[in-house]
Fold this protein.
Amino acid sequence: MMASTLADFTRRGGPVFLANRICRQRLTETGLQHLHDTPLDLATARQLAHRLEVNGTRLFLLAQLNAALQWLCLRYLDHHAIEVHWQEFRLAEEPHIFPTLGQILCRFQDEYALRDLPKGTVQPQGHGDVVVTARRSLVAAICLLDIQSNNPALNDLVPLFIDQSPTHRQDYKAVLDRLTELWPEQQESSLWDQPLRTLLEAPRKAAPFNLEGQLDYVLDHWSDLLPEELIRNLTVAQAIVREESQQRAPGPGPTPLPEFGKTEGAWEPAAFTPDTDWMPKAVLLAKSIHVWLGQLSRQYYTPITTLQQIPDAELDRLAGWGINALWLIGIWQRSKASRTIKQMRGNPEAEASAYALDNYRVAADLGGEEALDNLAARCTARGIRLACDVVPNHTGIDSEWVRHHPDWFIQSEHPPYPAYHFSGPDLCDDPAISIRIEDGYWDNSDAAVTFEHLDHRTGRRRYIYHGNDGTHMPWNDTAQLNFLLPEVRRMMSDLIVDVARRFRLIRFDAAMTLARKHFR
């Protein structure tokens, strides 16, 4: 009987990476021999590829294509009630003699050393439904090997799985050829009303030199036949290819800009109030708060370090110039780790980034919320609205949300690349948690996309993605929020409302990341 789920399919000999003897020997030398017949998720594929010196994404694509082809092959055999015995195929109980079939199964198992098979699978005396089912899985793998050995889109990966013996390859071809000859003349389903080889070769013929195109064919033509988990894996594989092939910098000629809010050629109606009573007349002055306070200290010959110490005379001067909106950059409590990273990289006087935040409370060294209330009241009396930043895309690497709600961030259980190592200093002062950025940051050898988050209370180690708006390299002192989670959307909405009660204007950093289309 056909496996009902992808997990069941995998346990019974499904989407394995067929590693030949030479490839298995290389894996053994690096202690990864246990992975050669493991279902290839992205992390495993990248780990294997790193050791085998091939492209990890392409190895992952191959694994998903293999899974789809094997699933279809097993569905085909099940649909036609084809049983696999030692020296024959049986089609609807009718025997079709194949004297060398058992020998081919033995040779295949010896060459590829697949996971433990039921006793008797590759022995003449083996019998019973379990053995017949296991032999069917072996035959599906043999058919897969025959198809993929002639796939020009896999030229860089063929040395990993092709048996070096031409005689053996001819034997494997004979298995699929024999099955191709067995298909009945009349069938209930048009998909199955074709030779097995024709069915399995369809993706390759549709895109002979393009592995991504072959996956596109599978999704376009076979989605209704594949398990949901495999469809999800194939969709992820497509997305990874798009992400890795996306251009990050403008090339020659005009750079096309995305048109957010446009649906099927028509712009969506505006959903905000124009505030025509003041917005067209706003004259906004931006001040980086620490720089400004330093300038005021020199200008007024007295230390000015908090918001309430900003002189009335300075506010009068701004109002006299016609300034009616004041944007205070960097007033929120900043990430301690951000400052540590900058100072360890050679700038001992550096302050943390104004956009790597710990929380949305006015920084204590600026006087806190009381100092803000004092400044706001004095500005309001002079007709000056206060503006601030909200950073919806990310927080600081060691923020309150990272420490108390790490599930709110985009993350993985594994580093995205096997070469990543996290052995540097702990950047979190909370004894319950350790946070480390990738070692390549410290020696300028890499710009990693994740940092390591270790919870000492549970022992859980996760890898959280740095903030990235999709147009730049990731920011190494930030953590990317996951707006696919409803609790994150709700949290950010409540935060924006809270900030709006304290500030008349809000400037959203990387505002496009709030747009559903951009985040997608």
